[in-house]
């Protein structure tokens, strides 16, 4: 492949003055990323006539000019922006939330506490809401996301379990889901222990019989806990706290959790065993796994057949992990001696539920998280997460988006901008009618590839490629989903280079394969449209177009020209633009061979008129050019 040289030629004073666009991208420039929401999917096929696809090109002898339309390419910071100085976001709270959390929310937005809404009323209200906060009682279904019509940006689950939120639909609609995963852990664990002990000693049954005027000391003889084996099913936050407390009560504790590290369990004297081993050796089984397709009805006739006769079961996880009819059968047969249940498949369960009415079953109405302390904690945790998300920050408790720690985020900030701009540029270089099927991103970095989290960058490249040519809004939540849906395959390669390890990334190269380009010089030796960028002093720069090295900061708009390398070119083009009062912000020329082909990259603050672009195209030495909007 021919090598090229770079000669930065003209840097007008405007680049050195501190206009907002020439500042290094900051964390705030990333904030809008999560604000955008998805909309109608359209094909990725490029069309000359798409209104968002603004570019002009003159190619070789034909020098046809495609008309520039007026709609803005970038949707970031558009009408969906939430800025407390403009409009306050509306936050719907559909279930009771602790006062401290409500206070935090009220300081940020308009809070509508409407409890016990029917699904229909929720769907009506949601269209005007930016955020929705729920507990386990509200079903956030696909219809809710559809009814939101793209307005809903975040769903906050004030608690752990997100089985009442349709995550797939949330992701498709670009709606972030956050939860409050830790504030109610102890409350749930304490409730599990309360149920374990009260079940073993028939506290609820004895209480009910005394209130009915009876004194039945022989009927309510219980069983002891000390020395008994407790199987903790799911060794996560709640499960491990239950295990700790049960050890304190003198119980032998075993656990089954396919994903929990065994050394964490071993550290507190808990053995990790298989599912069958756990349920067949335990005297008590306490459930602490999430409800997922894999755990749904995992306690069924088959598993009850394997349990030790007389086992006692506690469930403060989710009702759906037990086949409730099978549990009734196991209780009736005596295989299961007792059950203590805080959660049910249907909540509230039907009044005539055999399970609830069973005399050897102790029930509570989903009270696991219901302590004053936990509710205040959860309310604050979710309010902070929702406000953060509405401000556009990446949430630490995001359920359907990658969590990017704040320090990584601020380090990646300028690269995030570079990634999106490369995407935007590359797609504008594609000839109308071509369909983009695959993009390859090559990150060069001095760091170990494992230390480079590129999810955010990939999402921004996707955003840059898709948004200019479709009506889709892309954010971190739906970027991968949208790319897949549009048939765009994005592959990534990390190349270790000898550069400063201080910088997370040395360069980002974007290649679009199997497409024609309206600017032939952007096609590399390998036949792909290929552009490359670097961050210099915090500013994203375009450093390569096809086989040509250039160096132009990626701000404002860009004109790329291929011309015969000869004196006077810069002056000619500069004059044409100057006559139209178009300010040139940066210029760079790259060439492969002296006095042959050269590429001129010209950054312009204003959008040149069609007339001036036409004049540029008429300069005899210019063989092709393209006007690109960032
Ligand atoms: N009753 C309540 O009010 C209440 C309160 C808090 C939490 N919960 C429920 O308790 C459960 C646990 O909450 P958490 O905060 O500990 O969650 P967590 O995510 O910290 O822990 C869940 C654990 O379950 C494990 N797991 C997943 N699939 C499993 C399987 N097939 N078998 C065994 N283990 C499996 C996971 O690896 C994880 O370690 C959730 O269902 C949550 O909704 C209920
Ligand atoms: O998953 C949870 O956090 C608990 O089930 C608590 O649910 P709740 O907020 O409806 O009490």
TrEMBL record:
It holds the Pfam family 2-Hacid_dh_C. Residues 1-29 are annotated as: Disordered. GO terms for biological process: L-serine biosynthetic process. Its main location: plastid. CDD domains: ACT_3PGDH-xct, PGDH_4. It comes from the Eukaryota. Belongs to the D-isomer specific 2-hydroxyacid dehydrogenase family. This is D-3-phosphoglycerate dehydrogenase. It comes from Populus tomentosa. The lineage of its organism: Eukaryota, Viridiplantae, Streptophyta, Embryophyta, Tracheophyta.
């Amino acid at each position: 492949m021919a090598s090229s040289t770079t000669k930065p030629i003209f840097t007008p004073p405007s680049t050195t003055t501190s206009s907002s666009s020439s500042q290094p991208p900051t964390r705030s420039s990333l904030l809008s990323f999560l604000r955008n929401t998805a909309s109608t999917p359209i094909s990725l096929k490029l069309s000359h006539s798409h209104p968002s696809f603004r570019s002009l090109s003159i190619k070789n002898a034909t020098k046809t000019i495609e008309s520039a339309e007026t709609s803005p390419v970038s949707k970031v910071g558009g009408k969906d922006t939430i800025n407390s100085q403009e409009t306050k976001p509306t936050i719907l709270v559909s279930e009771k939330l602790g006062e401290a959390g409500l206070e935090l929310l009220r300081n940020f937005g308009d809070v509508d506490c409407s409890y016990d809404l029917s699904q229909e009323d929720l769907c009506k209200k949601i269209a005007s809401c930016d955020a929705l906060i729920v507990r386990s009682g509200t079903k956030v279904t696909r219809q809710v996301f559809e009814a939101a019509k793209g307005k809903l940006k975040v769903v906050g689950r004030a608690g752990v379990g997100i089985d009442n939120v349709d995550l797939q639909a949330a992701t498709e609609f670009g709606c972030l889901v956050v939860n409050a995963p830790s504030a109610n852990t102890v409350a749930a664990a304490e409730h599990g222990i309360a149920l374990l002990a009260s079940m073993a000693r028939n506290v609820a049954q004895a209480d009910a019989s005394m209130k009915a005027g009876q004194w039945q000391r022989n009927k309510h003889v219980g069983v002891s806990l000390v020395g008994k084996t407790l199987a903790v099913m799911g060794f996560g936050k709640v499960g491990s706290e239950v295990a700790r407390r049960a050890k304190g009560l003198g119980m032998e504790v075993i656990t089954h959790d396919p994903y929990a590290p065994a050394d964490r369990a071993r550290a507190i004297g808990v053995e990790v065993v298989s599912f069958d081993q756990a349920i067949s050796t335990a005297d008590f089984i306490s459930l602490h796994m999430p409800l997922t397709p894999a755990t749904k009805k995992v306690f069924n006739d088959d598993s009850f057949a394997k349990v030790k006769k007389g086992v006692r079961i506690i469930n403060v996880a989710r009702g759906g992990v037990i086949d409730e009819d099978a549990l009734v059968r196991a209780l009736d047969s005596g295989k299961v001696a007792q059950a203590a249940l805080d959660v049910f498949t249907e909540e509230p369960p039907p009044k005539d539920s055999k399970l609830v009415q069973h005399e050897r079953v102790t029930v509570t109405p989903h009270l696991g998280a219901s302590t004053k302390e936990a509710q205040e904690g959860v309310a604050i945790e979710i309010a902070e997460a929702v406000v953060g998300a509405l401000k556009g920050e990446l949430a630490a408790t995001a359920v359907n988006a990658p969590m990017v720690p704040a320090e990584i985020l601020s380090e990646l900030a300028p690269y995030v901008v570079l990634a999106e701009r490369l995407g935007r540029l590359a797609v504008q270089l594609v000839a109308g009618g071509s369909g983009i099927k695959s993009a390859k991103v090559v990150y060069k970095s001095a760091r170990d590839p494992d230390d480079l989290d590129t999810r955010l960058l990939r999402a921004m490249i996707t955003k840059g490629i898709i948004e200019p040519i479709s009506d889709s809004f892309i954010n971190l939540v739906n970027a991968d989903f949208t790319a897949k849906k549009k048939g765009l395959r994005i592959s990534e390669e990390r190349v270790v280079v000898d550069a400063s390890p201080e910088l997370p990334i040395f360069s980002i190269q974007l290649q679009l394969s199997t497409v024609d380009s309206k600017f032939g010089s952007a096609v590399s030796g390998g036949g792909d449209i290929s552009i490359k960028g670097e961050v210099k002093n915090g500013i994203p720069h375009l450093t390569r177009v096809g086989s040509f090295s250039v160096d132009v900061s990626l701000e404002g708009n860009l004109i790329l020209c291929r011309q015969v390398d000869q004196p006077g070119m810069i002056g000619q083009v500069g004059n044409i633009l100057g006559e139209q009062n178009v300010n040139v912000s940066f210029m760079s020329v790259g060439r492969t061979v002296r006095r042959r082909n050269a590429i001129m990259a010209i950054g312009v603050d204003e959008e040149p008129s069609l007339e001036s672009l036409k004049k540029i195209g008429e300069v005899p030495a210019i063989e092709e050019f393209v006007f690109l909007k960032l």
